[in-house]
Amino acid sequence: MFKKVICIVLSTILLVGCSSNSKNTNYDSEFLTSLSKGLDKRWKDTDKYPDESAKNYKLYINDELNEVKDYGDKKFKNDKLKELAIRYINVLKEGKEIASNFGADSFEDQWSEHQNKRYELLVEINSISEIPVQDKDGLGEILAGGKEVKRDNEVRKDLENIINSADFKQDDSNSYLPKYSAVVENTTGYDIEALTVEVSLFDENDVLYNTTYINVNNWKKGTKAKLEFLDTDDKEGTYEFSLKHYEVK
User: Which fold has domain 167-248?
Assistant: First the structure.
């Protein structure tokens, strides 16, 4: 009787120990390994099946998604890495939907935006811990592209803030051409080779009556430029800006 009690107690202790270890398992390393496997497989299939088609685009995405899709509800030691893992999984799922639109007029822009999101997330993941892929050159190319995407997105936000906070006033230097202008500084930290801003003009009743543009070239970082646009109708009302194009030197 005494021996049986000891066995039961020991068994209970062992079970509790196993349960405790299971609850404390983190999947940071496993996710990175699975991510690298998916990337390597994707690159191999991209070389093996280079023809552009909805089928092949879905194949490339599934190569990755099949490896990482189950990590969304796993426990991570690094909370930021888990957040990025979930975002990356969601971007891959969005990519499958976009792949279904192959052949549509909007596909190229949608696919390019999808790839940019992937590249930027891979840069962030790799900054936390190096992604252990076999194809180091392939990863290097993606990271280079991702860093450029990240930079361009940051510059876009900065430019939008600069433009939307500018104090445009009517310029009376030429009474024949009603013009509005503002002097602003390039605080993006980068030289802007070209900038185009669309200006939508609305009358007092909030009805769009004209569209014009602001253009700036060779805008060096830390320097000021005069942004200006014409209002040939010269109506009372409001205006809205939309950043249409910019090039970082």
Answer: Immunoglobulin-like (2.60.40)
